[in-house]
């Protein structure tokens, strides 16, 4: 057990999880420091999003424990879990904005659902949060009228509306042009600095993420391959980490998908 | 053989899952009733938006029944019974069944598609992560709106089919059945329990359509193909269930 | 503003929906006064009730005053016992009234017609209507007609209408008025 005011905000021990026969995690240990930005790096398809859903208690691990503020997420009842989730936010890759509500109403949504604040105060809070992400002017637009990068910024404004202690970003920079990527990077780091938010960023945009994070984990094949400060990761001698960081096409992760036969055998085999 | 068994197994599993889901919805209903604004919004999408198709179809069904009924009744020299022919057919069968079928196509499919898309775009997961229960916030208000709308639409359908614009227009104004006879026969033959049974039927259909469409949407595969399949199976399953259930209810109410 | 329009539209929808239910209930359906609690029950025994069913109308001078509540058979006399619910406001029907099973139109459904007698006492809950007249059975009439025709063939002196009543197979008090009922339609 860790006490709520410990330096460790989220502690994962011996995590195992699989989809059917496909093993996603095979014994993963993580410590997420309070008030810091922690990056989880890994190639596509390693189930990084799964990790965030496991921390949020949406899915249950096969074995292992996940503690948030010293509380085992998987031992909570539905109501206790909902209480816990009011103190954490998960930013989906798509933004997951409610398409039938305006930008303003989207940001107001958690406030309306969880508080009895008067309308005037909700309005002030929403405008403040929208101002923080630079989208106060877009408050009357609907989600389909704004770009993907803007959707993520609105989702950020919504995520901080209830002033959570923990915020998790799922691939926040994927598929963004350089300008909106720069905007998002600045926002993630300024949110962390201004509000002391514990931030977890799951990503494969190595350079950008390492530039703002305090600590990083490299995950592949269901295991933690390496972890340390960004400097340590960059200097890592792990072959895999080097391949991943520098984007080399071949290495421990082979260029060729596994095949039962050798190339020459396959070519020489008569066509059916 | 083993294939058949797995089809049966899938069916039973689906039915079990759907039943469990229905219980979850029913448990969320009291909480959802405390938020009338959400229900109001859904009443608009589910009820008001279905109004035009119901009014038009009701009118046409009234015309068709009046024409067909007149042809048949003429051979027995009983055209004075045209009013009761139209009214009995409409109130007992046509209004609840046709309204339910149209409603499944218009509102049920839209509900399934909407909920399926919300799932595919992580909106439902997002709500859950914001500590908002999507069953209470999204599913229950839509289910309630279906339950309220369908009986009202059925009554509107029946009035359109029997009334001035429907059967009356063809029977009295075009085919020359006496107006007093038209209404007199209806008054003499249609009983209050006919109307009550009609409304009970449509309420049952409402439960079935609401249940199927939110279930299909909520458990749709989160892809465009999954959503389109959910929409199709909502219409197919709702229609088949409505027709089957209509037989059961009619047999049950038939004395 | 937008939500105001929404409320108005939904309000409009619910209004016309409820109005439609009311129209169906009060303008289209006839109101069942009978069976709303204000009723009393009497019985009547018939030799043959024909196609009379539960729920059939009970009329006096063509006005509906009640309905058939149940039909059973008397284990001793093998007569049909018909339980009748009559509207409580009709509490002045003479005790010696006659109950007849009639047919609406040539092929229509059957109902019970009450013809008032002259007694000072009136029917009340649990009374039995003593004077009854069985259903008009088409087959019996045809049978009688055939018998009378064959008899006419053998014995041409015999007047035609008289034998129609005489060789009736059923007991006299019930069948004799049955034939009389036929021309009344």
Which terms would index this structure?
heterotrimer, A: 272 residues, alpha/beta, Rossmann fold, six-stranded mixed β-sheet, four-stranded antiparallel β-sheet, 10 helices, globular, B: 255 residues, mainly alpha, 0% strand
Notes on the structure:
Chain A is of the alpha/beta class. Chain A is built from ten helices and ten strands. Chain A has helices at 48-55, 78-85, 103-114, 119-132, 148-159, 178-195, 206-212, 230-234, 239-246, 263-268, and strands at 8-19, 22-33, 37-41, 63-68, 71-72, 88-91, 166-170, 198-203, 215-220, 223-228. In chain A, helix 6 links the parallel strand 7 and strand 8 (198-203). In chain A, helix 3 crosses helix 4 (119-132), helix 4 (119-132) crosses helix 5 (148-159) and helix 5 packs parallel to helix 6. Chain A starts with 7 loop residues before the first strand and ends with a helix. Chain B is built from nine helices and no strands. Chain B is an all-alpha fold and 255 residues long. The two termini of chain B are 42 Å apart. Chain B has helices at 2-33, 36-75, 82-120, 123-129, 134-162, 167-174, 179-189, 192-218, 224-253. Chain C is an alpha/beta fold. Chain C is built from three helices and eight strands; from the N terminus they run H-E-E-E-E-E-E-E-E-H-H. Chain C has helices at 2-28, 138-154, 172-181, and strands at 39-46, 57-60, 63-73, 80-87, 98-103, 110-115, 128-129, 131-133. Chain C has an eight-stranded mixed sheet with strand order 7-1-4-3-2-6-5-8. Chain C is elongated. Chains in contact: A-B, B-C. Chain B binds chain C through residues 40-41, 43-44, 47-48, 51, 87, 91, 148-149, 151-153, 155-156, 158-159, 162-163, 186-195, 198-199, 255, and chain C through 6-7, 9-10, 12-14, 16-18, 20-21, 23-25, 28-32, 54-55.
